[in-house]
Specification:
The structure holds two protein chains of two kinds.
Chain A (H helix, E strand, L loop, with lengths): L2 H18 L10 H4 L9 H10 L7 H5 L6 H9 L3 H11 L3 H7 L6 H4 L11 H14 L14 E5 L3 H13 L2 E5 L8 H5 L7 H12 L4 E3 L10 H7 L2 E4 L19 E3 H9 L11 E5 L3 H12 L4 E5 L11 H9 L3 E3 L2 E8 L5 E14 L5 E5 L5 E4 L2 E4 L7 H6 L4 E2 L2 E2 L13 E3 L14 H24 L1
Parallel strand pairs in A: 1-2, 1-4, 2-3, 4-16, 5-13, 6-7, 6-13, 7-8
Antiparallel strand pairs in A: 9-10, 10-11, 10-12, 14-15
Chain B lengths: L5 E3 L2 E3 L3 E3 L8 H10 L3 E7 L10 E6 L2 E8 L8 H14 L4 E6 L5 H13 L4 E5 L13 H4 L2 H14 L4 E4 L7 H10 L4 E4 L3 E3 L2 E2 L6 E2 L9 E4 L4 H12 L8 E4 L5 H9 L2 E6 L1 H6 L4 H15 L26 E6 L9 H9 L4 E5 L5 E5 L9 H5 L6 E6 L8 H11 L1
Helix pairs in contact in B: 1-2, 3-5, 5-6, 8-10
Classes of the chains: A alpha/beta, B alpha/beta.
Keywords (chain B): Iron, Iron-sulfur, Metal-binding, Oxidoreductase
InterPro entries (chain B): 4Fe4S_Fe-S-bd (IPR017896), 4Fe4S_Fe_S_CS (IPR017900), Aldolase_TIM (IPR013785), Dihydroorotate_DH_cat (IPR005720)
Family (chain B): Belongs to the dihydropyrimidine dehydrogenase family.
Chain lengths: 472, 420
C-alpha cells in the first residue's frame, strides 16, 4: 500500500463535508428571497464529477433502499454519458414525482444512506443528481411518457397529491381514462401546498402534474368529493376509484385560548407561504410551534423566514422521539430555531383584544414505551411556566377525512382506511386507497416517495383486476 | 424511435453495438446474456486450435483514481474445444436469429487450415467471419495474430484463402502495431475482404512494481507484453478508422473498435466512417447492462438531430479529416478568459508561461482582486490554457479576424512552384 492513497481519500472526504454545509443568510428585509430554493442544485461540472464517481454497482443497495425502486446507477450513468433525457425517464418512470422527491426525500436514510461508498469514501449525492436530471427535463420542457392505448375502463382518483398523481399516471399508461378530483385550487397536494418553498418550489410540483395531464388525465380542481360531487356519483360513474385524499387539517390542542388571534394551523400556515404572497405579520414576532414532526419544522423555519425574532419548537417528548428527520432538525437549527424538549402547552394566553401574548407550558417526564414504541410523556406536577409569545403554530399531526371515507362506505380504523398491504384494495373491491389516507403511525410510511410507490402499486393492482375481468 | 439497425457488408444487426471478440464472448451463456441485455451482435472469442492460458491475465491503469482508464491482457484465443464453441454458436443463433454472430478465427497461415475452419463455422450458421490478424501476444510468437497482420502480403494471401471458401461476409481485423494501418487495410481489400475492423490491442507493459520489481501483471515473477485497450486507446483507434475511411483505395465498410465506452464514443466512430462498433473493456468494467444507455442515448441523439436512421450519419465527418498540408494557415483563434467564472487557480498562466507562448498575464484590478488576461495579439491559439483549465466556461477559444484569405501549406507550395 502506498500511503499517498490514504491521504487523498481523507482529503476528498473533507472537501465534501465542506460542500454539504453551504448555507445562506436569512434576510430580514427581502422575505421573498428567504423562500427561494436554498439549494442551488448542481452545476454541469459538479454533476459530471459526481456522476463519474458513482461505481455503477450491480444489484445496487441504493435501488433497494428507494421505495419506488429507481434504477439509480442507471440514471447516474446516463448523466455521465450525456443522456439526460434517458436519465430523467429512468427516474420518472419509477417515480412519477421524482423531481419533488429529489428535493424532499430523506436521502440520508434511503438511497444515500445505503450507498456502498459510505464504507470507503463518501456517498454519492443521489438526490442532487436526481434533481440535476429532472431539472434538465423541466428546463427543456420534455414530455417523458405517452398514454397507453385506451382499454375502455375508467378510473376516478380522489386527490392529486403524490399518491393520486402516481396512480393516475400509471393507470393512464395502462390505457385507463382517468379523472382526478382535487378539492384545492391547484393540483399537486402536499407537494404543491404542504412543503416549504425553499425546499420545494411550486413549479416543480406543477411540472409533475403537467406530465400526468399530458397523458390525457383530466384534473378537476376546486372539486371536493362529498361537496361538489357525491361519492355515490363517483361509484356509479367509474369502474374504479383510487382514494388518495391524504389527511386534513391539524387537530385542536383542546386547551384554553386556542381561538385567539395568532394561533395557526401549521398546514394552512405553510400553504399561505407557497403562493409567494408573504405576510409581514411575523416580522419581529416571537413564535411557539407545537410539535416536532416534519410539518412543525416547516412551520418553524417558515416563521424564521417571515422575519420572526425568536422561534421555539415545543415538544412534549425528547429529541429521540421526534419524528422530524435529522436533516430537518439540522436545517431548523441553522435557521436559529430553538428546541424545548419535554415541554407541553397548557393554555394560550391572550390580551383584552383577543391576541396571543403568551403560552403556559408544563414540563414533562418520559415514562414507559407506549404502543407505538415511543416513551409516553407525563406532566411534572407544579412545573408550569409562561413563555411570552405573539403567535402559536399548531403542528401536532393531522385529522382524517372521516366523512369522505364513510360516504364511500369503507372500513377504517379511526379514519385510517383499511387496505391490503400489497394491492391497496379497500373493503370495496373496486376502491383502492393509498398515501396518507392509509397511513397509521410511524415515520417512514408518511414519505412522499412511499405515497408515490403505493399509488403505483394500487394502479398495478387495478390494471391486473381489470385485465382479469376483461378476459373472463 | 430512430432506426438503429445496420448492415455491415451484408451482416445485419438490430443496432450497431457488437461485443468484440474477447473474454465477454467466450461462451454461449455469455453471448446469450448479452443479447438478452440488448446487444446487437457479438464477435465470438477467437476460434482456433484450443490453447493453454496463464494465470494472472489482466491489468489496468487507474488514472488519478479513475479505474480502468486503460486495460491490458495476456489472455490468448479460446481455450475451449472447437466442437463446444460450434455447438454453442448454433444454439445461440437459433435463439437469437436476428442478432449478428460473427466468428473470429485464427489459424496457422496455411490455405487448408483456413478452408477447414471457415467451413466448420459457417455450417453452424454464423452471419460472418472476422479474421484475427491482430492479437499481439502469444499467438504472434507462433506466427499468427499480429505476426500475420504486420505483413501486408500475408494479410492479402490469407484473406484470399478465406474468401475462396467463405459464403458469409469476411471482416479482416487489423493490428495497430504497425506504422501505417492503411497499408494492411489495403492488403485486406486486395485479398477480397468484405469489411475491415480495427483496432486490435496495442503492445503494452502496464507497469513495474516498485517494491518487488516485478512486471504488472507477472506470471510467477515473469512478464510479457500484452495488448492495450480501453478508453485510453480511443484517439489512436479513431485516427486509424478515419485514415482508412478517407482512403479511396479502402472501399469497404469499417467496424470500429478501441476504447468505446458509451453512445457518444460510438457516434464519433460512426461519424468518422465506422458502420458499426465493437466494445469490450466497458462491458468488462460494468457488465452487459451498459447497452441500455448506449441504445437509448444514441436514439435520443438521432432524434434530437432529426435523423431517422443511423445509417444516414455514417462517415459524415470523414470529409472534414485531411492532411496537415490542407489546413488553413491563416485561420486564427485566441483564448478568452471569463473572469466571472475563473477561480484564479493560475494553471493557465503557468502552463502558458513555462510551456507555451507567454501570453497570459496575472494582473490585479483596482479593487485589489487578482485576475488573468490573455494578450490576444501574442496568443497562437494552441488551446493549452483551455485544456488545463479546471472550470467549465472559464476559457473559450474564439475565432479572431483573419488578416489574409485562407491559404494552406499545399496552396502555398503550389503558389511558390508556379512563381518559380
Amino acid at each position: 500500500m502506498r500511503p499517498i492513497h490514504l491521504f487523498s481519500y481523507s482529503l476528498a472526504k473533507e472537501v465534501f463535508s465542506v460542500v454539504t454545509i453551504k448555507t445562506q443568510r436569512i434576510s430580514s428585509t427581502h422575505l421573498e428571497k428567504n423562500f427561494e430554493e436554498t439549494d442551488p442544485g448542481f452545476t454541469n461540472q459538479e454533476a459530471l464529477e459526481e456522476s463519474n464517481r458513482c461505481l455503477y454497482c450491480y444489484d445496487a443497495p441504493c435501488i433497494k433502499a428507494c421505495p419506488t425502486g429507481i434504477d439509480i446507477p442507471a440514471f447516474i450513468k446516463k448523466i455521465s454519458s450525456g443522456n439526460l433525457l434517458g436519465s430523467a425517464k429512468t427516474i420518472m418512470s419509477s417515480n412519477p414525482v421524482g423531481a419533488s422527491c429529489a428535493r424532499v426525500c430523506p436521502t440520508e436514510e434511503l438511497c444515500e444512506g445505503s450507498c456502498v461508498l459510505n464504507h470507503s469514501t463518501s456517498p454519492i449525492p443521489i438526490g442532487k443528481l436526481q434533481r440535476f436530471a429532472t431539472d434538465w427535463a423541466i428546463n427543456n420542457e420534455q414530455i417523458l411518457f405517452k398514454p397507453g392505448s385506451p382499454n375502455g375502463k375508467t378510473a376516478a382518483v380522489i386527490g392529486s397529491g403524490p399518491a393520486g398523481l402516481s396512480a393516475a399516471r400509471e393507470l393512464a399508461r395502462f390505457g385507463f381514462q382517468v379523472t382526478i378530483y382535487e378539492a384545492a385550487e391547484k393540483a399537486g397536494g402536499l407537494n404543491t401546498y404542504g412543503i416549504v418553498s425553499f425546499r420545494l418550489p411550486q413549479p416543480i410540483s406543477f411540472w409533475e402534474v403537467e406530465q400526468v395531464q399530458k397523458l390525457n388525465v383530466q384534473i378537476l380542481t376546486n372539486t371536493k368529493v362529498g361537496k361538489d360531487v357525491s361519492a355515490e356519483d363517483l361509484l356509479n360513474s367509474y369502474d374504479y376509484i383510487v382514494l388518495a385524499a391524504g389527511m386534513a387539517h391539524v387537530p385542536d390542542l383542546h386547551i384554553e385560548g386556542e381561538e385567539l388571534e395568532g394561533v395557526f394551523d401549521a398546514i394552512e400556515f405553510v400553504k399561505s407561504t407557497k403562493s409567494g404572497d408573504l405576510t409581514r405579520d411575523f416580522t419581529g414576532k416571537r413564535v411557539a410551534v407545537i410539535g416536532a414532526g416534519n410539518t412543525a419544522i416547516d412551520g418553524a423555519t417558515c416563521s424564521v423566514r417571515l422575519g420572526a425574532e425568536n422561534v421555539k419548537i415545543l415538544y412534549r417528548r425528547s429529541v429521540d422521539e421526534m419524528t422530524a428527520y435529522d436533516f430537518e432538525y439540522e436545517f431548523a437549527k441553522q435557521d436559529g430555531v430553538e428546541f424545548r424538549w419535554l415541554t407541553a402547552p397548557k393554555r394560550i394566553i391572550g390580551d383584552e383584544k383577543g391576541r396571543v401574548t403568551g403560552i403556559e407550558c408544563l414540563k414533562m417526564a418520559l415514562g414507559e414505551p407506549g404502543r407505538d414504541g415511543r416513551r409516553s410523556p407525563a406532566a411534572v406536577t407544579g412545573s408550569e411556566f409562561i413563555l411570552p409569545v405573539d403567535a402559536v403554530v399548531k403542528a401536532i399531526g393531522q385529522t382524517r377525512h372521516l366523512s369522505l371515507i364513510q360516504a364511500l362506505g369503507l372500513q377504517h380504523e379511526n379514519g385510517v382506511v383499511k387496505a391490503d398491504k400489497e394491492t391497496y384494495q379497500t373493503s370495496h373491491p373496486n376502491i383502492f386507497a393509498c398515501g396518507d389516507i392509509v397511513f397509521g403511525k410511524g415515520k417512514g410510511d408518511a414519505m412522499v416517495v412511499t405515497a408515490a410507490q403505493q399509488g403505483k402499486l394500487a394502479a398495478y393492482a387495478i390494471h391486473k383486476q381489470a385485465s382479469a375481468a376483461g378476459t373472463a | 424511435m430512430a432506426d438503429l439497425s445496420i448492415n455491415l457488408a451484408g451482416i445485419k444487426s438490430p443496432n450497431p453495438f457488437w461485443l468484440a471478440s474477447a473474454p465477454p464472448t467466450n461462451s454461449g451463456y455469455q453471448v446469450q446474456r448479452a443479447f438478452d441485455a440488448g446487444w446487437g451482435g457479438a464477435v465470438w472469442k477467437t476460434l482456433g486450435d484450443p490453447i493453454l492460458n496463464v494465470s494472472s491475465r489482466f491489468a489496468a491503469v487507474s488514472f488519478n483514481g479513475q479505474r480502468v482508464a486503460g486495460f491490458n491482457n495476456i489472455e490468448l484465443i479460446t481455450d475451449r474445444p472447437l466442437e463446444v464453441n460450434l455447438k454453442e454458436i448454433y444454439e445461440t443463433k437459433k435463439r437469437f436469429p436476428n442478432h449478428a454472430i460473427i466468428a473470429s478465427l485464427m489459424v496457422e497461415p496455411k490455405q487448408e487450415k483456413w478452408h477447414e475452419i471457415v467451413k466448420r463455422v459457417e455450417d453452424v450458421g454464423v452471419d460472418g467471419l472476422e479474421l484475427n490478424f491482430g492479437c499481439p501476444h502469444g499467438m504472434a510468437e507462433r506466427g499468427m495474430g499480429s505476426a500475420s497482420g504486420q505483413v501486408p502480403s500475408l494479410v492479402e494471401k490469407q484473406t484470399y484463402w478465406v474468401k475462396e471458401a467463405a459464403r458469409t461476409p469476411v471482416i479482416v481485423k487489423l493490428t495497430p502495431n504497425i506504422t501505417d494501418i492503411t497499408v494492411t487495410a489495403e492488403a485486406a481489400v486486395n485479398g477480397g475482404a468484405d469489411a475491415i475492423s480495427m483496432i486490435n490491442t496495442i503492445n503494452s507493459l502496464m507497469g513495474v512494481d516498485l517494491d518487488t520489481w516485478n512486471t504488472i501483471p507477472h506470471v510467477a515473477g515473469k512478464g510479457a507484453h500484452g495488448g492495450y485497450c480501453g478508453p485510453a486507446v480511443k484517439p489512436i483507434a479513431l485516427n486509424m478508422v478515419a485514415e482508412c475511411a478517407r482512403n479511396p483505395r479502402i472501399s469497404v465498410p469499417i467496424s470500429g473498435i478501441g476504447g468505446i465506452s458509451n453512445w457518444q464514443d460510438a457516434v464519433e466512430f460512426i461519424l468518422m466512417g465506422a458502420t458499426g462498433v465493437q466494445i469490450c473493456t466497458a462491458a468488462m468494467h460494468h457488465g452487459f447492462r451498459i447497452i441500455e444507455d448506449m441504445i437509448e442515448g444514441l436514439d435520443h441523439y438521432l432524434e434530437q438531430k432529426g435523423v431517422s436512421s443511423l445509417t444516414e450519419i455514417i462517415g459524415k465527418s470523414v470529409p472534414r479529416y485531411s492532411d496537415w498540408g490542407n489546413l488553413d494557415l491563416n485561420y486564427n483563434i485566441a483564448a478568452q478568459i471569463n473572469t466571472d467564472v475563473c477561480i484564479n487557480c493560475n494553471k493557465c498562466h503557468i502552463a502558458c508561461e513555462d510551456t507555451s507562448h507567454q501570453c497570459i498575464d496575472m494582473l490585479t484590478g483596482e479593487d485589489g482582486r487578482s485576475y488573468l488576461k490573455v494578450r490576444e495579439e501574442d496568443c497562437v491559439g494552441c488551446n493549452l490554457c483551455a485544456i488545463v483549465c479546471p472550470v467549465d466556461g472559464a476559457i473559450t477559444m474564439v475565432e479572431t479576424a483573419a488578416s489574409q484569405p485562407p491559404m494552406t501549406w499545399n496552396d502555398r507550395q503550389a503558389a511558390l512552384n508556379t512563381a518559380k
